Amino acid sequence: MHGFRRHFGLDAAAVTAAILLGAFTSAAWTEETRTYDFKLPDLEGKEVSLQELLAHGPVLVDFWATWCKPCAKELPHLDAIAKEFAGRGVSVVAVSVDNPRSVSKVRSYVKSQNFSFIVVLDTNGEAKRAFKAFSQPYTVMLNPDGTKAFSNIGYKPGDEKIIREKIAALLASLPPSAGQAE
Amino acid sequence: MTASACFRTAAAALLSAILLAVPSAASAFDLGALTAGGSNQTEYKVATEDGQEILLEWLDLDVTAGDLAGGIRYEAFQPPQKDDPLGDRVREGVAFRYVEATREWGRLRAGNHYALFGRGLSLNLFEDRDVRIDNNLDGILFDGSAGPVEWTLLSGRARVTSNERWPADDSRHERLDLLHAGDVVFRPVDQVLVGVSGVRTRYPAAGTEERRDLVTGRAEVSAGPVSIYAEHGTLDGAAGAADGEGTYVSANAATSGIGFTAEYKNYDRFALKTFDGRINLNNPPALSKEQSYTLMNRDPHSLDVNDERGYQLELTAVPRHGATVTANRSRNERHNGLVWYEEYFLDLRQDFEAELGVSTASVLLDYRGVGEGKFHTTVIGDLTWLFSDIYSLRVEAGHQHTENVAIGSFDTELVVLEFAQSPALVVGTSIEWNNKSEAQSVGQDKVYAMGTISRVLMGDADLTLAAGSRQAGYYCVGGRCRYEPAFKGVESKFLVRF
Predict the structure, then answer these.
(1) Which pLDDT tens digits describe chain B residue by residue (498 residues)?
(2) Do A76 and A70 touch, CB atoms closer than 8 A?
(3) A139 in B contact zone (CB under 8 Å)
(4) DSSP alpha helices (H): ranges in A40-182?
(5) Closest Cα to residue B178, out of B200, B163, B193?
(6) Taking CA atoms, what residue in B is nearest to A3?
(7) Cβ <8 Å between B496 and A66
(8) Are the Cβ atoms of B119 and A100 closer than 8 angstroms?
(9) How many CB atoms lie within 10 A of CB B444?
C-alpha cells in the first residue's frame, strides 16, 4: 500500500508540474482579460457595488481580517494611500474576510481606528473565492475596466511605497476620461 | 497506479490544459465578454522520519461569458495529512464544478455551492483549505433580491466522509445526505434587517428515513455608533430526543478612538451534521479570540455546538497616534456549569514613524485555561525594524508557561527571525524549545527549528520552501498566516493565480 501511494503520489506530482507549467505559460503569454465584481454590505448594511466604484476610476481592493497581524500593520498605510489618492479618482475598499467567528468585531475595530476607506463584509467568502485571496492580506489594484492592474501578496514593511508608485504609474497611463476626478 | 486512476489523472490534466488555454483563445479570437481565470495551489512535503510523501493539490478554473459562468476544481490528496477532517483516503479528481446564470432577478446555480445564513446558526457551508474544511453541497442554488427582500433557496447533497454504515461500498455513499434550505431577509432600511432561515436534512437509513429540521430567526439594528444582532433557532430532536436550541447575541458600540464588542451564546444540542457525524452543516460563532501567533494556538478553542454557552468581550482603543490597545475576555462553559475554556488577552501595539527606524512594536499577554486541565500563560514581543525603504527585520520572542494536570508544568520558548525585502522576498527561521520531556519523564524532541524562504514570483504567484521541524499550530511568515500541523521534514508550497 505504501508503494502504491508512493508511486501514485509521484505520478500526480509529475502531472501537477505539467499543470503548473501550463499555468505559467498561460499567465505569462496571455493578456489579462478577467474582470472582477462584487456587491457586498458595508458596516451600515448598505450594499457596495465594485462596478459602481470602478465607474469613477481604479479601485484598490484589500482582503484582510481582524485576527490577521500583518493586516493590522498594513491597514494604516492603506488609509494614508486612500487619503492621498482620493482626489484622483482612486477608491480603496477593504474587504473583511472575517467569518461568523469574528465578524462581530470588524465594526468596532474599524470605527475605533477611524479609517477613511470603504470597508465591506465578505462573511461567506464569495469575493475571497472569486479573487483567489486564500491568504491575507492580499491587495489587488483594478483598472477602471475591472481587470487586474497589479497585486501585492502579504504585507512586508515598505510595500506601501511600492503600491504608491504603482498607483501613480497606473494613473499616469490612464486617459483623462478614465474617471479621474481632479 | 491503476489504469483507471491513470486515466482520470490524464483526463483531468487534459481538461485543465484546455481550460487554461481559454484566455489565449479569448484574446486571440476576441470573444467579447468571455473571460477566464483560476489558481493552482500545490503543497508537497516529505517527512524525514518515515519518508512519507504528501501531495495536496487544488486547481481552480472559472470561465465567465456575459451572464453565464462555470468552473471546476481538481483536487488531489495523495494521501491527505494526518487528522484530515475529510478522512484519510487517497482521493483525486474533479471535486467541485458548477454552472450559473446571473440576471437582474437573481442567480441560478447548478452544481457545487457554498452558503451562509445569518451568522451560521442554521447553515454555514464554506471552504477553508488551511484547516481542510470543505462542506459544500452538490445541487441547485437560487438567490436574488427584489426591493427590500433578499432570498436564498438551495437543495443539494452533502459530502460524507466515512462509510461505517456501508463499509462494502466506498464510493457510492460519498454524497448521501439530502439538504433543503431557504433564507429570506427583509431589509426595510439599510440599518434594519430581519431574517428567517429553515434547513431540512434527510438521511437515508435502512428501510426508513432520518430527518432533522432547523429553523432560526434573526434581527439586526444599527443606529449611529451602536449595532445589535440577535439570532435564535431550534433543532428538532432526532429519534425522539429533546429538541435543541441555539441563541447568539452580539452588540457593539464604536466611535473614533474606541470600540467595544460584547457577544453571548447558548448552544444546547444544536449541532446539525452529516449523517456520519463528521461534517458540520451549521457553524455558529464560537466566541473565542482568533489568534495568529503560534504559541497562542497550541490549545485553540474547539466549539461544541451541542453543549456550550458563554460570552466574549473585546475592547479596542486608540489612546494616541499609532497606538492600539486590544483587551479580550472570553468564557465558555458546559450546561452543567463546568468552565472548560476561558481566556484573558491583552495586546499593546505601537506603530512608530518611519524615521525612528522601528515600524511596529507589540506586546501580547495571554492567559487561558482549558477544562481538561491545561492552563497557559503566554507573553509575546513582536518588533519590526524597517532599516531602509524596502528592507526590514522582524523579531518575535514568545514565552509560554503551561500547567498541565496530567503531566505537570513546563515552559516553551519561541523565537522567530525574519528578513524581508519588499515586496517579494522573506527569509525566516523559527526556533522553539521546551522542557516538556522533564515534566513527562519521557524522551522527545525538545528543540524544533524551521527555516523558510518565501518568494513572490511574476507578481501573483507565491512559492514557499521550508525545512526542519515544528509543532502543530498556526505559523506566520512573510505577512501570511496558515495552519500547520506538526511536521518534520521538507516541504514546498506554491500558489499561482492566473
Answers:
(1) 444 444 444 445 544 544 444 444 444 334 456 888 899 999 999 988 888 888 889 999 999 888 899 999 998 887 655 555 555 566 678 889 999 999 888 999 999 999 999 999 999 998 888 777 788 999 999 999 999 999 999 999 987 655 444 444 444 446 778 899 999 999 999 899 999 999 999 876 656 667 889 999 999 999 889 999 999 999 997 766 789 999 999 999 999 999 999 999 999 999 998 877 778 899 999 998 888 788 887 777 888 899 999 999 999 999 988 899 999 999 999 999 888 888 899 999 888 875 444 556 666 666 666 666 888 899 999 998 888 889 999 999 999 988 888 888 899 999 999 999 999 999 999 999 988 877 666 556 578 999 999 999 987 899 999 999 988 665 444 344 445 667 899 999 999 998
(2) no
(3) no
(4) 50-54, 69-85, 106-113, 126-131, 159-173
(5) B200
(6) B1
(7) no
(8) yes
(9) 8
Task: For chain A, give the number of residues.
Answer: 182
Element (DSSP H or E) covering residue B244: strand B244-255
Alpha-carbon gap, residue B97 to B94, rounded angstroms: 7
Helix (H) or strand (E) holding A4: helix A2-29
Q: For residue B196, what are the contacts with CB-CB under 8 A and spacing of at least 6?
A: B183, B184, B215, B216, B217, B218
Burial of B105 (0-12, 13-18, 19+ CB in 10 A): exposed
Q: Residue written as cell 460563532?
A: B285
Kindly provide the ipTM of the predicted complex, given to two decimals. 0.86
Which of these, B58, B48, B20, lies nearest to B36 by C-alpha position?
Answer: B20
Contacts of A67 in chain B (CB under 8 A): 289-292
Query: Taking CB atoms and an 8 Å cutoff, what residues of chain A touch B458?
Result: 24, 27-28
C-alpha B68/C-alpha B13 separation (Å) is: 24
Chain position carrying cell 433580491: B145
Question: Is A99 within 8 Å of chain B by CB?
Answer: yes
Q: Which amino acid is at B178?
A: L
A54 touches A144 (CB < 8 A)? yes
Distances, alpha carbon B9 to alpha carbons A3, A39, B93, B270, in Å: 18, 37, 7, 41
Q: Tell me which residue of B228, B229, B221, B226 sits closest to B255, measured CA to CA.
A: B226
Residues of A in contact with B423 (CB under 8 A): 152-153, 156, 158-159, 162
- Tell me, yes or no, if A33 comes closer than 8 A to chain B by beta carbon: yes
Closest CB to B259 among A11, A15, A111: A111
Q: Which of A10, A104, A155 sits opposite B479 (nearest CB)?
A: A155
Strand ranges (E), B278-322: 307-317
Residue (of B270, B250, B269) closest to B261 by Cα position: B250
Q: Which residue has the cell 481565470?
A: B37
Q: Do B389 and A158 touch (CB under 8 A)?
A: yes
Alpha-carbon gap: B82 to the closest alpha carbon of chain A (Å): 15
Q: How far is A25 from chain B (nearest CA, A)?
A: 9
